[in-house]
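Data deposition worksheet. Section B asks for the primary sequence of the deposited chain exactly as it was used as input, without tags or linkers unless they were present during the calculation. Section C holds the resulting structure in token form. Section D is free text for depositor observations; keep each observation to a single sentence. Incomplete worksheets are returned to the depositor.
Section A, Depositor: J.P.
Section B:
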Amino acid sequence: MFRDFEQIPDVASAAIGKVGDEPIFPFPEVLGVIELCSSNQIAVLGVELFLAKPDGYYASGCSDYDLLENQRWPAVQLTNWQEYVRQNNALAEECVRGNPLGDDHVYILTSSSWREFCENQDMKRQLRKPLRS
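Section C:
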């Protein structure tokens, strides 16, 4: 299943491959993908970095700003989604700019549209419901 951000043509064309189901992006193109997410109201919730070797991809780092953002945003509503996107995406860009790795690295962006965010929240609520005997 494609995520909403993968439906944006310029995002799809910026991807240079996939790790599992996740599109991967090189530097500096990943910065343009973050901008596209911002203009399409898609929040970048996290950034993962991978070392690309002939035999596969190896995790070499990830962002941690999501831990702070989860505390700052205990309840995200449609009325504040635009600000949530702005703050997360600014932190994603800062993370990438702080880790401008070369051609032997790629980036994966964990993202969410408002629709996907709501679906995720609904799933969390379902999982919290007690099981009936």
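Section D:
The chain has five helices and five strands.
The longest helix spans residues 81-97.
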